[in-house]
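Appendix B, example 12.
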Amino acid sequence: MYFEKPGKQNTQETVNIALQAAKELGIDTIVVATNTGDTADLLKDAARSGLHVVAVSHCFGFKDPEVQEMPAERKAALEAAGIQVYTATHVLSGAERGLSAKFGGISPIEVMAYSLRMLGQGTKVAVECSVMALDGGMIPYQKPVIAIGGTGRGADTALVLRAAHAANILDTKIDRVLCKPVLV
């Protein structure tokens, strides 16, 4: 499925496509990027029905020092519905982005992030969040999962992938693109 343009207007359809693919392909885990919890909220019924859902949020201080974008009440509601919420430093930026910003230049990790963005921001986010979830022990190594990412807010990309740990990130394999926006 190709969306006309990137953005949050594709969120519900992306989630529907991901859930349908999970059912058809026998995949029991979905990793979803979520800043405030809105996208993950759409997967609460699936989690209650036994699907393993991992919501990966922005790290503390992503926008402002000491600030977490996902309200504590939202996190608690997601966890009560059976969704694991994981927060960690972004694997495709983190400390390297800080060094590049301070000293100029670009790092190999940033080249990787920009290369993934050639397929769309959602592709980069879906891969990144899956690797983060694997490093955090939330999903199994090299087992197919559905990863949902987006451009800004909401979701517009869903992939079937097998994540590798950050130390071996190039061993991550994207098996299928379920949906993504046409890039403008």
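The longest strand covers residues 173-181. Strands lie at 2-3, 29-33, 52-57, 84-87, 145-149, 157-162, 173-181.
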